[in-house]
Amino acid sequence: MGVQTILNGSLPVTLPSHKSVLGRPVRNARSQTRCGRMQTRVVAQAAAQTEQKAKTKVPTELEDGELPLNTFSPKKPFIAKIRSVEKITGPKATGETCHIIIDTKGDIPFWEGQSYGVIPPGEKTNSRGKKVPHGTRLYSIAASRYGDNFDGKTTSLCVRRATFWDSEKNAEDPEKAGICSNFLCNAKAGDEIKMTGPTGKVLLMPEDPNAVYIMVATGTGIAPYRAFWRRQFLEDVPNFKFTGLSWLFMGVANSDAKLYDEELKDILNRYPDQFRVDYALSREQKNKKGGKMYIQDKVEEYADEVFDLLDNGAHIYFCGLKGMMPGIQEMLERVSGEKGMVWEDFFGKLKKNGQWHVEVY
Prior knowledge:
By secondary structure, this protein is an alpha/beta fold. The protein has eight helices and 19 strands. β7 and β8 form a beta hairpin.
């Protein structure tokens, strides 16, 4: 299988030879001379520098300071306001997902890969029969530190409306609907929202601008990766010039359930040598055994490239429903055995080197 070699610090990194989601082939380097490979790298770097002009300038003071952690708590939450709520799934999606922009005035700063807590309004009755405020729900942040408007004054959440289907009544039961997700998806511009955090260190981006990212998501688990790709490809950050590879594996039920698809297509058009997207559409695609295409099946299709990249220092991220991890880990262990590798040893190396990042719920 053909590969293209680029430099990852001092290590060689193999890039996939498969076509991208838009059908652009990645060059096959085995048929090229060493000079040709060098020329490919130079051309790719020059192209990246040209595209840099199209990026949006951002307030660089947000690059200063330490990682913010737990700036606000449930007892002393931050009060923000909803700026907009937009449904981002199509009519045939299996559920409703909303992109929610929140006006923070920049007073609850965060870094890419972190989460916020949201405290929904109202009260619940605890086990002692006492009325208490609702608990905090955590949501991965779906924006870079500069927000959707690139000014550092907003943040964004990607929220799936949680509903409960009563099979006896053959209808949704509003009494059992998710309290916080429905509050957020029903919110209007100007509504107040109580927030805590930010929290989290597991999904932070590596400091190396030439790093390789393999990002595996199901559903709203795509949220932190949106923060990544906006920082990598849409923002002009003077101290972060991304020259690596960012590869997204996204699992949803069908095409109408894709999230941020137009934004992804735009980046794929502009950065075909640095960005890849592969979808696992469980109700539209079949895996190699003829069954439904789940996220582990899609990653397995590119197992050779994934293992090569990991062996050369790539970071792999997992975010989404915790139910996806057993299938993924079983697949990785099985494939490593087929390659004559001991998965426990390889997995241990990934964790030791800080290449393995998991945040599931």
